[in-house]
From TrEMBL:
Disulfide bonds: C421-C444
Pfam families xrefs: LRR_8, TIR
Domain named TIR: residues: 644-787
GO molecular function, one term: transmembrane signaling receptor activity
PANTHER family: TOLL-LIKE RECEPTOR, TOLL-LIKE RECEPTOR 6
Swiss-Prot/TrEMBL GO biological process terms: inflammatory response; innate immune response; toll-like receptor signaling pathway
Keywords, in A-Z order: Disulfide bond, Glycoprotein, Immunity, Inflammatory response, Innate immunity, Leucine-rich repeat, Membrane, NAD, Receptor, Repeat, Signal, Transmembrane, Transmembrane helix
SUPFAM superfamilies recorded: L domain-like (SSF52058), Toll/Interleukin receptor TIR domain (SSF52200)
Name of the protein: Toll-like receptor 1
Membrane topology: Single-pass type I membrane protein
Upper lineage: Eukaryota, Metazoa, Chordata, Craniata, Vertebrata
Membrane-spanning parts: 587-609
Length: 801
């Protein structure tokens, strides 16, 4: 009887947990060798397990600190006495298990007067001689489940609970039970559980009263006496019971089929057998009642202990039952036959069996014949079997013309697309979850499908060439490999699309434009890449949250189910907290954002440079740097400087003499420049011709400086000086001539005879005299750098910059 106690306790725990607003505080002190209730129990205790100890008495105050206690298990102790005020401090107590103790009198349970909130009470397996309940049981107005056990049950034993509306009354029968017929008349319960001692035959009078008084009757632990129960059942003119359960039983095939046929002849609507051990199974078919009022038959966890029998005979008995719903679940059947005649069955459930692709078919000669006698089946459930070929399954059910709901989940189904599927046309609900199906499955679906469940498969994309599912309104693709949102071209009426836990990085929201009827979308728990491609999806989510989406789509689990996986800096961030600026995603805006400031900056810099003559400064610095570089890198042989007395010979027009004397010579000669300058007014030798003096000065000077102006190009002597200097330039190098532009000198103003000047101005850099006085210092530094040289017998002077 220990399983019954455990079941009651588990049920009560489940109910209590559902009622509790938060997780309860559980204290487990079972099997601790306790002889009394501990005094140091936590005040927050809600669930207390004291089972399997040696507690003999419960006293007042044992639970004074546990005012929140809801569940108390003191089963499997040695309880003999419970003080009437034991539960005075536990007003919230809902579940009390006192089974497997030594309580002796059901009329003396005075402690129940303080347990008005009890919902579940278990008093089975005590030392009660009679089932007479005391008046204190009448105070349990909230009681729903009551479990009792005694050696004798008599009339009036239950009169004190006549006003208590129970859901379930459990009677654990004792050995040699004495039962007086009609003793259960005072009980008002929806369900009666009768637990047999196992080795004894259940009393027929008790069973007869059960059938006449209770809507649901459950018999457990039966091993024999089935024929007597069948006889008593067939003798009843009127049966109140509509649901009959057989649990944890052992039965022969002959007793089982006789019992089932007997129930089929009664008004009982539902028969269920769980945890059944069958023996002496048949070699030939067993006759089945042809017609019945029974609606459903369910067998769960049935096993056989026979090695030699006809499996076909067993299958034939069940498939030919005249019921509307047939369920054989969690049972190792490897095949199911076809009914011999057109079956009235509307629903078939063979979940968690071992069925193969040959289900319902048979072999005749060399051909496999499909079943044609299940034409009334509307719902077929084949969850958790060994089914493999989706195309073969379509052939197995092709003659089920009424089939609307087909559940093939938790199998090993595949479809290779080599053969066409032949589904019946009326299927509207298709469940194919947890298989091995790929994209090809969309070519093997009933055309009238309205609800399609493909979660936990291997679908990566919906092919564009799929069969058109015009009526499809619900599509579940959770836990697949989808890489993007599908277009709805093949299913225009799609209303709900589930794509949770796929491989979507950046869903293409524009594809939703092909889904005008879509109202619900779930794309949560995908590996979103938070880059520009995700902006439109994030916008959809935010609009969905604010109910402002023009599409009217509700995004399920938004925003907490949507997180970034890349880039690393925003990993695990919720999408609605991510900001991806449009300017970083729009190439035009990005170019404008970069180029416009750049252009403005360039214009500003150019304008500022023009205003501050920056190009001129840069040019002058560049010339100074080149001159310095040439001075350091050029190696002048001593013999090349023989006869050189001057750093430079200055050639200029007489009209520019004032500038030469006031500016040029003052900044090049003496302490200011440290250079030795030759010019005609100082160094021409009287008596010599001008040409001789020019040649002499040019030959004795390291370089020749020409002060260019409009007057220079009009002077004949200047032309001679330029001519001779150009010949020296050819002999000494291109840096022997230095041009100083005193004023702007356009090319067209230079006479043609000055072709050498034009050539030099076109190919070589010249120095311009700046009008701005701030630039004069840099001008002179450049000119001195260009003329500086170590002459024989000439002290080295450092240039001032």
């Amino acid at each position: 009887m220990r399983p019954v106690t455990t079941a009651l306790w588990a049920t009560a725990m489940l109910v209590g947990l559902q009622l509790s607003a938060s997780s309860p505080d559980i204290v487990d002190l079972s099997s601790k060798n306790l002889s009394s209730v501990p005094r140091d129990l936590p005040q927050t205790t809600e669930i207390l397990d004291l089972s399997c100890n040696h507690i003999q008495q419960l006293h007042r105050g044992d639970f004074k600190n546990t005012t929140l206690l809801r569940f108390l298990n003191i089963s499997w102790n040695s309880l003999e006495e419970i003080n009437r005020q034991t539960f005075l401090d536990t007003p919230l107590l809902e579940n009390l298990d006192l089974s497997y103790n030594r309580l002796t009198n059901l009329t003396g349970q005075q402690y129940l007067l303080h347990t008005q909130n009890l919902v579940v009470l278990n008093l089975t397996r005590n030392a009660f001689l009679t089932m007479t309940l005391g008046s204190e049981f009448g105070s349990l107005v909230k009681l729903e489940r009551l479990a009792l056990g005694a050696k004798n049950i008599s009339m009036g034993d239950f009169k004190n609970i006549a006003e208590v509306k129970l859901h379930t009354l459990t009677l654990c029968l004792e050995d040699a039970l004495g039962y007086e017929r009609g003793s259960l008349n005072d009980v008002h319960a929806h369900r009666l559980q009768i637990a047999s001692p196992g080795h004894q035959i259940m009393g027929c009078d008790l069973f007869a009263d059960a059938l006449s008084l209770f809507v649901e009757v459950e018999l457990t632990n039966l091993t024999e006496g089935y024929k007597d129960l069948s006889r008593r059942m067939s003798e009843r003119a009127e049966i109140h019971t509509s649901h009959h359960y057989l649990t944890n039983i052992s039965i022969t095939w002959a007793d089982l089929t006789h019992y089932v046929n007997t129930v089929l002849r009664t008004s009982i609507a539902h028969l269920s057998a769980s945890d059944v051990i069958m023996s002496k199974l048949p070699y030939i078919d067993t006759e089945v009642v042809k017609t019945s009022k029974m609606k459903s038959f369910t067998a769960r966890r049935a096993v056989v202990n026979s090695f030699f029998f006809s499996q076909e005979a067993v299958y034939n008995f069940f498939i030919n039952l005249p019921v509307e719903t047939l369920a054989l679940v969690e049972t190792s059947i490897i095949h199911m036959t076809c009914p011999k005649l057109q079956s009235p069955i509307l629903e078939l459930d063979f979940s968690f069996c071992a069925l193969s692709d040959t289900i319902f078919s048979r072999v005749e000669g060399q051909q496999r014949v499909e079943c044609e006698n299940l034409g009334n089946v509307r719902k077929l459930t084949l969850v958790g079997n060994n089914l493999k070929s989706l195309q073969l399954l379509s052939k197995r059910v092709q003659n089920m013309k009424s089939l609307q709901h087909l559940d093939l989940s938790l199998n090993s189904l595949f479809y290779d697309g080599l053969e066409e599927c032949v589904w019946p046309q009326n299927i509207t609900n298709m469940t194919l979850s947890s298989n091995g199906l790929t994209d090809m499955v969309f070519k093997c679906l009933p055309k009238g499908t309205e609800i399609l469940d493909l979660q936990n498969n291997q679908v990566s994309v919906i092919p564009s060439t799929i069969l058109e599912l015009k009526n499809l309104s619900f599509l579940n693709l959770n836990f697949n490999r989808m890489r993007d949102l599908p277009a709805c071209n093949g299913f225009p009426l799609l209303n709900e699309l589930l794509l949770k836990s796929n491989s979507l990085h950046a869903p293409s929201v524009n594809k939703l434009e092909s889904c005008p009827q879509l109202k619900t979308l779930d794309v949560s728990s995908n590996p979103f890449t938070c880059t520009c491609a995700l902006r439109s999806f994030i916008s959809l989510g935010i609009k969905s949250e604010k109910k402002k989406s023009h599409t009217g789509i509700e995004l399920l689990s938004w925003p907490l189910g949507y997180h970034c996986t890349y880039p690393e800096v925003v990993r695990n961030s919720v999408l609605n907290k991510i900001s991806i600026l449009e300017v970083s995603c729009n190439v035009g805006l990005l170019a404008a954002a970069i180029l416009c400031p750049a252009v403005v900056m360039i214009i500003a810099v150019v304008s500022l440079c023009h205003r501050l003559d920056v190009p001129w400064y840069i040019g002058m610095i560049w010339q100074w740097t080149r001159a310095k570089h040439r001075a350091r890198t050029r190696h002048v042989r001593p013999e090349d400087l023989v006869g050189i007395e001057f750093h430079a010979f200055v050639s200029y027009s007489q009209h520019d003499a004032d500038w030469v004397h006031n500016y040029l010579l003052n900044n090049l000669e003496g302490p200011a420049g440290g250079l030795r300058i030759c010019h005609h007014e100082k160094n021409f030798v009287p008596g010599k011709t001008i040409v001789e003096n020019i040649i002499n000065c040019v030959e004795k000077s390291r370089r020749s400086v020409f002060v260019l102006s409009g007057h220079f190009v009009k002077s004949e002597w200047c032309h001679y000086e330029l001519y001779f200097a150009s010949h020296q330039r050819m002999a000494q190098g291109s840096d022997s001539v230095v041009l100083v532009l005193l004023e702007p000198l356009p090319q067209y103003l230079i006479p043609s005879k000055y072709y050498q000047l034009k050539s030099m101005m076109g190919r070589h850099t010249y120095l311009e005299w700046p009008q701005d006085r701030a630039k004069h210092r840099l001008f002179w530094a450049n000119l001195r750098a260009a003329l500086q040289a170590d002459l024989p017998n000439t002290p080295v002077t450092e240039l001032e910059e």
